[in-house]
Fold these 2 entries.
Entry 1:
Amino acid sequence: MYRARVVKVDPLRPSDKAIEEAAGILRSGGLVAFPTETVYGLGADAFNSEAVLKVFKVKRRPLDNPLIVHVSSLDMLYQVAADISEQVVRALAIAWPGPLTVVLKRRAEVPAVVSGGLDTIAARCPAHPVALKLIEALGRPIAAPSANLAGRPSPTRAEHVIEDLGDGVDLIIDAEETFFGVESTVVDLVSPIPQILRPGPIGPEELEKVFGFRFSLTPYARGFSMYTGTPPSPGMKYRHYAPNKKLVLVEKGLCDTSTYLDFLINTLKTYSKELLALLATRETIEEVSRRLGTSIMYLTLGPRENLFEIARNLYSSLRNLDKLDSVSIAFSEGVEERGVGLAIMNRLRKASSERIVCEVG
Ligand code: AMP
Ligand code: MG
């Protein structure tokens, strides 16, 4: 069976040889999966529409769900975007390289297929040595969505890419685990009201500091109900990040921790423990296992106070769920919606098949 070639590199000091090989593949219209600081991306030369079409095909991504274009500098942004204001340039000089994607007006030279036919373009400059060196070696922007099958959790390790796309990629650059574990924050800068289209590692407070104005955050961006009409971002229409198993998200609502734990434990009690998995913070697992025993499969997301660690573990935990054959239903704890917690809750709401909210009293 054909398998993609996998080349291992040091995440911080990738070898020139590996980067050159990858750039050569992109130059000749091939696909390369590579790490960014958020998740692994599936890259194609952004100006080669045939290669970009292959990305959609391999991922089984709907053609109307646009890709993010990755640049290695602010200068390169001008190859893909037009009408960039001074204010945006100043903000990007601070925020880039980093996990922030901006939606701007698309230059006509960029193949429309990259943007799913929209006249806008999403772009970012990734803060990962492998991604940056690869873009520099190619000398052109790389169009890259997350390197997973559409609808599945995004890959935070090369093994996840092999699992989902092994046969469809020409080369996978394996640089261990990605740093943030959730996808970039996406903001819309072309609509009259600047808005967060997808929460990510850069939270609303940081955005306001960097841009000097506030971004609106709709319920859709928080992961509530999918759009049915024309959404501000095509990705909002689709279910995402979902494991194959039934996943119930138990949200905290307005409950304090002890009320929430009672609520969660009472919910779990109504099921046969041997069939259950619980995705939760370390503290919650300690308490639940003390009260309900160890026959539940526990998957630890990280310490309650460290939202960045929870974000980093989220997708591999969702993937691990699918490997637990004896489990038929999984529950997940909700986290606080602050900073990167907004991104975690957006992903969990979209990944879950059911949602229940803790009620006071
Ligand atoms: P992914 O590439 O898998 O990280 O997903 C990229 C996200 O950015 C999707 O939710 C897209 O819908 C969104 N996106 C990309 N380009 C645009 C655009 N031009 N306008 C609005 N949203 C976009
Ligand atoms: Mg994706």
Entry 2:
Amino acid sequence: MSELINLTITEAQDLLNKKEISAVELTKAHIAEMEKARFLNAYITETPELALEQAASSDAKRAQGAPLGRLEGIPIANKDLYCTKGIRTTAASKILSNFVPPYESTVTQRLKDAGTIMLGKVNTDQFAMGGSTVTSYFGATKNPWADENGDYTLVPGGSSGGSAAAVAAGLCMGATGSDTGGSIRQPASFCGITGIKPTYGRCSRYGIVAFASSLDQAGPMARSVKDCALLLHEMAGFDPKDATVADLPVPDFAAALTGDVRGKKIGIPHEYRPSGLNADVAKVWDKGIALLKEAGAEIIDVSLPHTKYALPVYYIIACAEASSNLSRYDGVRYTTRVDGKTLDEMYENTRTDGFGPEVIRRILLGTFVLSAGFYDAYYTRAQRVRRLIYEDFQNVFQTVDALLVPAAPTPALSAEAFQHMSPVDTYLGDVFTTPASLAGVPALSLPIGLSQQGLPIGLQIIGKHFDEHTVFQIAGALEQAAAFDTKPHRVKG
Ligand code: GLN
């Protein structure tokens, strides 16, 4: 049974089609592994009964020869930021800890329609704010990659840390994540898996708990580039319920995986190589460059001069939008409520009790940068610099097809170290992911090598707007060349 949790989606589809395994068997194997690995705290809510029911009806459909979804019988997990009808959706917060949505997000609905089976809702940083999954009201998630002593002390990254840990540990075959400033790519790197933040506007945000609406994007996380391509194909596409989704056809992303990158021009921006760059990260980056070169790609040095402003611009814009989005949690319409003597006091009590410290910090920062006296100095200026960052990418994509850069400045850190870092120090972890978020371009992170301590390190391939095709093409070739084994860290015992 245990080998079932090591399959890629493509391998599982093949076995399901040949009737060598059933969806029920596949689902049971994952449920058994979830039970074994509960200490990782990857899931906030497990839905094994629902999963087995879905699996049984999937098997019945197959037996009857009924039309099947493109991901029929594949067990997945959803980040607990996606509204799932009738199933608690918490955003890893206290304030939404008893929220049961009366509707389903577009992306999870599409995955359901494609025949996937939902194993449960996975952990995240509270309201997707963070890079460690330590800020969850439901406790931190652990990285399934053990430290040098064999202990599970490392963070999985975040905010989609539950998704990354679950995928890496074989607790699902793929998962939804969301990425506002790196929340798919950084945890993918920390856990040795693949994840893509598609172009802003590729996937619907309808039914995803909003953090920063001009940045939030849904995306898949899985154990191979092809699995991500298959998942994204089902998740993406026009949605009348979200006006920011592009009305463009969704290409067959998996068809991009030709393995051929000959003649592709890959840009290497020197701004991503600051003098103090972590030696392990630098080494893996050099390895990625060498592998693409060997595969026939042309490597070109480029410059994205406004990169250094991305982090402060991101934190101004993301906090501003968060302060506005989170104003809806007032204890009146839904969410937990703490009463007070007056209406204002009730709001205050509810929000003080319901939000964690990181969320409160961001609401305060966001309210400050949007306040009448400081709006122009911070918010307007940040918007202007965002435009310059966007133009950097536009310019560079006149000469290259894609960029290759690190996903994160370090491998996974220990939860202990994280707890002692200042908020600003933790924000520095987003230095390589926020530029693509601000520009809205697609970026995929895939594991390329290990640090000296044996921890995974991922690289990002950043592409042109709506050119996920090229991103997948390059990622597929790099994955083959790097031959990274994504499954050495199954939970023991
Ligand atoms: N780590 C970043 C932050 O804390 C990104 C979060 C995200 O992408 N959701 O804002």
